[in-house]
Specification:
79 residues; alpha+beta; two-stranded antiparallel ribbon; three-stranded antiparallel sheet
Length: 79
């Protein structure tokens, strides 16, 4: 097992064998959420799938609220 290394920025680098799958999944989820927020803050539209499985576009309005436009409601109940 290798020792964790610390970068000049203070980040700790570890081998994938030293972390659990759930830790990796949590890091990926947090990175995705942060990227989404940065994109919205930059005025970009963000395409994603909502909780109901619909394809949507989110855009942050000047007042700070998020406008969601539904692109695809093809998620059917008989699937």
């Amino acid at each position: 097992m290798q020792r964790a290394k610390t970068t000049q920025e203070g980040s700790v680098l570890r081998s994938f064998s030293d972390v659990s799958t759930s830790e990796i999944a949590e890091l990926a989820l947090n990175a995705g959420k942060e990227a989404r927020e940065k994109a919205l803050d930059a005025g970009l539209e963000v395409r994603c799938t909502d909780e109901q499985g619909r394809k949507v576009i989110d855009k942050k309005l000047p007042d700070g609220t998020i406008k969601t436009t539904i692109l695809d409601e093809s998620k059917s109940d008989d699937e």
